[in-house]
Specification:
Radius of gyration: 11 Å
Structural class: alpha+beta
CATH class: Alpha Beta
Strand order of the largest sheet: 1-2-3
Number of domains: 1
Shape: globular
CATH topology: Metal Transport, Frataxin, Chain A
Length: about 80
């Protein structure tokens, strides 16, 4: 298993969009993404900060996306 990368929130959102997620709404600094057939996820978007590894792991777990798949799409 590849190590979990450190990514910005916008990069995480871009990868989730490639998996079929669409931005449903934003309230404050949190973006809510939805995809039919999958659980909705929230991504905290704090300016100039990267997502903590635990937060990214929780997002991927909720979206049912493996770290390998996430890294593969991120590196494209």
């Amino acid at each position: 298993m590849p190590p979990l990368p450190v990514v910005a929130a916008q990069d995480c959102i871009a990868v989730l969009r490639k998996f079929g997620y669409e931005v449903a709404r934003q309230k404050g600094s949190h973006v809510r993404l939805v995809c039919s057939g999958r659980n909705p996820v929230s991504v905290p978007v704090h300016q100039g900060q990267t997502l903590k590894r635990g937060t990214l792991r929780a997002i991927l777990r909720e979206a049912d996306i493996s770290v390998e798949d996430f890294v593969a799409v991120l590196s494209r």
